[in-house]
Every structure is written in C-alpha cells, then in structure tokens.
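Project standup — Tuesday

K.O.: blocked on the structure for the chain from last sprint. Re-posting the sequence here as requested.
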Amino acid sequence: MRIQTIRLPDVKEGVRYLSDLVYTLMRILTEIATQLNNLSEGRITAATNASTAPPTTGEHQVGDYVRNSAPAELGTAGSKYVIEGWLCTVAGTPGTWVQKRCLTGN
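H.V.: unblocked you, prediction finished:
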C-alpha cells in the first residue's frame, strides 16, 4: 500500500512562523512517505544502513545486516559472485562482519 500525497491546511497570509512550520512539516512528511513507499517495494533507497563496505565504527550485535549499495560481479570465471551485504557474526565495536555472497553462475 502506497502513502498518498500528504496535504496540510493552508496557512493564513502574514503568519510567517506558521508558514515555516507547514513547509518544514511537509518536507519531513514527504521524505518519510517516500522512504516508506520505497521500503514496501523493496528498494535499496529505503535502506538507511546501505553502504559500500561493512561498518568500521559503532557497536553492533550478532545478526545486524548492512546491504551493499554498490553491488558488482566479482571473482574469476566459473566462480563469480555478487556481495549482497555484510552480516555481523560476533557482537562488538564494530563487531565481526562476513560477506553475504550470491553466486552468479558465470
């Protein structure tokens, strides 16, 4: 289910702070709606933790997962793969991360 366009009440002329408030709320709510719509469609743009590498800072728990925002086919002929993301296998700062690979068959 997609979130439709968000509408807030019109602001009275000459009330500057209300105009600024409505503008800010519209911007924030539109960003939230966009992210939720992308998330419901499985788009990577919805993942706030997508990265090009596993974390090197911060505390992480076993099972934490970071999606790869720049997947590419790697490896040699006959054993090519794509790194889908990284999975934390040992909690810590930053924890121990392993690649989640997907074989391409090439």
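K.O.: great, moving the ticket to review. The chain has a mean pLDDT of 86. Strands lie at 65-67, 73-74, 81-90, 96-103.
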